[in-house]
Amino acid sequence: MSATAAHRPVATPPRLWRPPRALVLRAPGTNCDRETALALELAGAQPERIHLDAVLAGERSLAEFALLVFPGGFSFGDHLGAGTLWAHKLDALREPLDRFVASGRPVLGICNGFQALLKLGLLRGGALGPNANGRFECRWVWLRRPQAAATPLLAGIERIALPIAHGEGRFVAEHPPALDDLQRRGNVALVYDGADDGAGDGLADRPASPPYPANPNGSAGAVAALANVGGNVLGLMPHPERNVLPGQAPAGRPDGAGLAIFRNAVAMARG
């Protein structure tokens, strides 16, 4: 080999793009982790479904991931209340969870995950109680993003149709002024919408808090989702992971609309 060839600079290979790693943290009784992982993969993330016990034992760490999702289900059989025991277990991870949120990385809590986030205190302002009609509600609903809602996790979304499946989804504010504060600060991320036709006109004429069945659980202010002040933590009762593929939505509702939420989360995780 000639001296010239020996000292010829070697071209640096192009840096391969890597999808952000997403943790789907499951617990006993979680039953939506597989479809949540699929939604994240479709949105461009590299998801892993990991049991809470593996994180509590130190076998895995939140620091490995750029995105965290608490999926739906009936964690610990909803004993002592929906999400209560999950939140109690998660309290042992308080410091790493606080660091994760403070770093600006996105966190999603879906249905049972939302219930756990509220009881853990990562979202504040109220609680989720039994549905006002005392029944389990399992159907599709229309949702609207209030103008004040500022979370990037709902960027580009004005109205969306998603399925619900819960018996404890009625939002109750800590006290009457708390709901006003949440609305004013933009913490109310989604509300149940009174119209069932998907039309975008006439929003101003619709009731701020529609009655049943549009408001399926009797939530104060028709609250369906909350975000933290930083906008990187979103908890919602509807299931976006159940509307990410063609054919999942019934007639008259856009197919795959829930994927937008996961794409926003992945975009935030990329930074």
Automatic annotation (TrEMBL):
Alphabetically ordered keywords of this record? ATP-binding, Cytoplasm, Glutamine amidotransferase, Hydrolase, Ligase, Nucleotide-binding, Purine biosynthesis, Transferase
What InterPro entries does the record tag this protein with? Class_I_gatase-like, PRibForGlyAmidine_synth_PurQ
Which top EC class applies here? ligase
Give the Gene Ontology MF terms in alphabetical order: ATP binding; hydrolase activity; phosphoribosylformylglycinamidine synthase activity; transferase activity
The residue ranges crossing the membrane are: none
Any one GO CC term of the record: cytoplasm
GO BP terms:
'de novo' IMP biosynthetic process
On the tree of life, the source organism's domain of life is Bacteria
Its protein name is: Phosphoribosylformylglycinamidine synthase, glutamine amidotransferase subunit
